[in-house]
Amino acid sequence: MRANQSVTESFKSNLPIQSLGFFLAAFFLLTACGFAEEPTPVPVDKFHSALMDDFKVTEQQVTDARVSGVTDDELALSFFIAQRARLEPEAVTGIHASGMSWMQVAFHYQLNPWIFYTFLSASPSNSPYKAAYDKFNKPTFKINLTDPDLVNLANLKFLSEYYGRDPKDIVQKRASGKTFREINDDYWNQKSVHDYGWDVVNPNQTPTPSPDLFQKVIGL
Questions:
Q1: What is the pTM of this model?
Q2: Rounded mean pLDDT of the chain?
Q3: How many CB atoms lie within 10 A of CB 129?
Q4: Residues 6+ apart with CB under 8 A from 77
Q5: Contact 172, 124 (CB under 8 A)
Q6: Cβ-based neighbour number of residue 24 at 10 Å
Q7: How far apart are CA 165 and CA 71, in angstroms?
Q8: Which of 27, 84, 181, 210 lies 20 to 30 Å (CA to CA) from residue 54?
Q9: pLDDT per residue over 93-144, tens digit each?
């Protein structure tokens, strides 16, 4: 009788430990069976991914640029200036944050306005590019491009060279009201399905106008 009572008391004293063990076993079993909640995957930012790949910058550098006040549309411009000036993006975004316009930033690093030029086979009339190309076609001693001019030119260069697309196509898309992010998504999706225009021999090579056209543009 006493032996049975001793066994019963021992079982009762170990009951909390047994309950905890059962709970842990059940939890791990549910996890192994896939019942535990999975973390929600973060969607890929196609625009930022293309910029990071083309300009060889990190996600943190993209984030730092955005925190410094650079808009999504200005990212290609800031990275392009940094690339041509052979600087880290932080140097460019920092001086722009001090109050300089993008043209002043380019002049600060002694960059020629013609580095932003992309040859077009047709006039970009009725598009956001008209104002900038009018300045290239009728240059004065000092070409003074506005911030919107430079943003348009830098993204034209980035999208056309990275995806191997005709710059005229991008001008037309911009004239229709599409944003740079939307244009990038169009090309990204087509690249994923058809791999069209993705493998470019030298995506950073700037198209050069013919000598006759160049002389005409600069007034020789």
A1: 0.70
A2: 79
A3: 22
A4: 102, 150, 151, 154, 155
A5: no
A6: 10
A7: 24
A8: 210
A9: 999 999 999 999 999 999 999 999 999 988 898 999 999 999 998 866 678 8
